[in-house]
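Appendix B, Record 12. Input sequence as logged:
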Amino acid sequence: MAFKTYTELLRHPNWQRKRLEVLTLAQFACEHCGDKETTLNVHHGYYEKGKKPREYPLNCFTCLCEPCHEKVQEILATTRRQIGTLDRYDVQRAAGYLAMLDAVHPDDVIDAWTTDFVQGMADYLGVRCQHLLEELDNCMTYAEILKVAEQLPKAPEARLRRQDLTDG
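Logged structural output:
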């Protein structure tokens, strides 16, 4: 079988069916701004080497109008550049912060972490890293960490979390 370009893969009927499913679930509206008039794109939230566009789960996709898609692409490009400049400790800290976002399934089991990873989780949760480290021996899943974090005192220097930015 010959190698297919990305454009050719997007023309495949299986991708077209998946694309239509994403558009239908979004009610043919941009999931960021609600626009129903501008051309819509189905944005992949991430890519994995060797996977075809249609081989991702539905929760990987977002229906975006062209202007919103361009903005998201710019933000992702900037984020990739920023991550590329981090040392390994800051990468672990960022990974810990990201692990606490809604994208992580709460029942996922945590198999290993570094202090920097836990510092990122603590940053997200708004608690002191030392307090969280003391409690982690009893936690196996992200859901358990969230429950423990509710009982911990908030760190006075806690950074704004995503929901803080959206609160009126």
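Strands lie at 40-44, 61-65.
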